[in-house]
């Protein structure tokens, strides 16, 4: 038998532990074309909060009394597939549980010689690809332009800022603690960083961006997004990746009307999800791996130890507790 985590109640506002349940279920045995995987790492991500609501979105909502799924790294311990061998390390969208039986089409091998396995949940995984395509395909930053990134110390934002620096931009990051501000400036090479919790965000942004804003990579929404709009330059671009400030709101999220600002600046504001670029994942993965190997980008992880701490690691996302990618380590890779 094994442990798995189910969603048993739709959260009202910020999720609580009472919305989830640990259940004991059989491990299962693989049939032809399937493999049995032991979970090593689980990715916890803000977007999962949206899937807990029973509303239409870009991915179906989680069903109640069913296992939660996200990106997982695991090791094959039994294979009935010609494509996978015992001890292969793989990734896929799998359940929050200790073991998974999965069809061979639902996983892919990863190269742990290139980077540690957990990196395939961050800089070489969905968050890295989200940063890559949102910035380079939608924003197309040019040398000397000003790029502002909200949620800049998170898994996506930290990679966005580093790619923008590679492209020669002046990069301003927004984050929520002094520790994160120091990390952005001293470790990742951001030109400026703002702790939105300790300053007036409008004044701080104006001071940090004396030449206006050419690109705003939106991860947060709310008052931070509002503060950016008056500073947009002509033909500014705004990739909208997330709006974590409103994910747990029980009332409508009301702020500035964007139309006038977009018209006056001839700006482009475009929402996207990384799945929009599925046909180009190989391109993005190769570019990110090349920069990682060359030392041009780095990444940080907040690793929580133990399957029994998975719910806590998820809830911590909404307190801003993570630096870089939040990951749960369930077991060692052998």
UniProtKB/TrEMBL annotation:
The keyword Nucleotide-binding does not apply. Keywords: Oxidoreductase. This is Enoyl reductase (ER) domain-containing protein. Residues 13-328 form the Enoyl reductase (ER) domain. CDD domains: PGDH. The keyword Oxidoreductase applies. Signal peptide: none annotated. Coiled coil: none annotated. GO terms for molecular function: oxidoreductase activity, acting on the CH-CH group of donors, NAD or NADP as acceptor. It comes from Virgibacillus salinus. InterPro entries: ADH-like_C, ADH_N_2, ER, GroES-like_sf, MDR_fam, NAD(P)-bd_dom_sf.
């Amino acid at each position: 038998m094994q442990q798995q985590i189910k969603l048993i109640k739709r959260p009202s506002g910020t999720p609580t532990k009472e919305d989830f349940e640990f259940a004991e279920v059989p491990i299962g045995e693989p049939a032809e074309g399937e493999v049995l995987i032991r979970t090593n790492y689980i990715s916890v991500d803000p977007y999962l909060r949206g899937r807990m609501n029973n509303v239409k979105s870009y991915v179906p909502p989680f069903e109640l009394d069913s296992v939660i799924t996200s990106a997982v790294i695991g090791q094959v311990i039994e294979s009935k597939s010609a494509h996978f061998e015992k001890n292969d390390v793989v990734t896929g969208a799998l359940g929050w549980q200790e073991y998974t039986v999965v069809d061979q089409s639902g996983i892919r091998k990863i190269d742990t010689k290139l980077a540690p396995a957990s990196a395939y949940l961050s800089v070489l995984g969905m968050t890295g690809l989200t940063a890559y395509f949102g910035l380079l395909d939608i924003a197309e930053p040019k040398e000397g332009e000003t790029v502002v990134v909200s949620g800049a110390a998170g898994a996506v934002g930290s990679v966005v800022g580093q790619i923008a620096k590679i492209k020669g931009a002046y990069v301003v990051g927004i984050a929520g603690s002094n520790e994160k501000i120091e990390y952005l400036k001293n470790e990742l090479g951001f030109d400026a960083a703002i702790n939105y919790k300790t300053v007036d965000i409008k004044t701080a942004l104006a001071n940090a961006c004396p030449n206006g804003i050419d690109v705003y990579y939106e991860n947060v929404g709310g008052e931070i997004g509002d503060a950016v709009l008056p500073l947009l330059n002509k033909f500014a671009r705004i990739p909208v990746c997330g709006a974590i400030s409103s994910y747990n709101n029980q009332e409508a999220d009301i702020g500035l009307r964007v139309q006038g600002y977009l018209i006056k600046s001839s700006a482009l504001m475009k929402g996207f999800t990384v799945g929009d670029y599925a046909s180009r994942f190989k391109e993005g993965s190769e570019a990110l791996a090349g920069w990682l190997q060359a030392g041009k980008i780095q990444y940080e992880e907040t690793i929580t130890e133990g399957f029994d701490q998975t719910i806590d690691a998820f809830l911590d996302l909404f307190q801003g507790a993570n630096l870089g990618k939040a990951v749960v380590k369930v077991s060692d890779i052998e």
